[in-house]
Request: fold
Amino acid sequence: MAHVLVTGGAGYIGSHACKVLKSAGYTPVTFDNLITGWADAVKFGPLERGDLMDRARLDEVFATYRPAAVMHFAALSQVGESMENPGLYWRNNLLGSLNLIEAATDAGCQNFIFSSTCATYGDHDNVVLDESCPQVPINAYGASKRAIEDVLANFGESHGLNHVIFRYFNVAGGDPQGEVGEFHLPETHLIPLALDAVSGKRAALTVYGTDYPTPDGTCIRDYVHVLDLVEAHVLGLKWLEEGKGSRVFNLGTGTGFSVREVLDCCSEVTGLPMPSNDGARRPGDCAKLVSGSVRAEKELGWTPIRSTLKEMVADAWRWHQNGHYGT
Reply:
């Protein structure tokens, strides 16, 4: 079974990727500093604790496992934090990724899959975003991810590094078997926050803005089920193994759900009332952000079959009731 090095494999998306890789016949090797990840989430292959800023540690892991590919999920990802402390994001995300890319090429690992973000596009309100849209990020998080995409392109040209870049929209849901799930401290994602509110773990949720030009006045975002997302990564790995070259793909559904629809669905799935308050708009929030993912569907054969709102919420709720890490 070929080894795949999964950076950030102890986190939300990375742990689900490890499960899908294992079922696809690979051995995922998690590389994680466990600052935001959880050792309890590493269930499908070995854990190598380390930091991307430590080049010697990276070289040691590459020498031990000789991975056939890298899936790079490890990054700081809070937009607000990146605006308050941009230096942290540039150092961690860009310099750590550069270390990883150089270690991979020096070790002869020529297949690289990168977890990027729709934040590289910047502020394109109410536009269906496809891969040809201009990339004008408006915060250090999006800018650092955009820069890593440039580094990968440079290494592709100079070192023959084959890479697939996935630009995510909003990831939600969890493993239906409950082996891994979404668990952040602190939590910032809407669905787990809403489930905390309905279950009484936190105060009423604030809806930031109810006067947007959308059907119910609240923001619309494109949500994709985490298992659909990571299955795209396995398709991307096979794409590279078949020698099809470097490519960029958006991952979303192209439809989107409003904040109000998400809250109503959380109440419906749980059978509990949703405590919420209406608040003012937050600076920088767009009315509608949705993905154009036709390329992934046509070229990778990817179909986000689990990405109905009800299924994403139901899977998240199943984990929310019983799942946790770090005990």
Observations:
- Residues 86-106 form the longest helix (21 residues).
- The chain has a mean pLDDT of 93.
- The chain has two domains: 3-171+224-251, 190-222+254-322.
- The domain at 3-171+224-251 is CATH 3.40.50.720 (Rossmann fold).
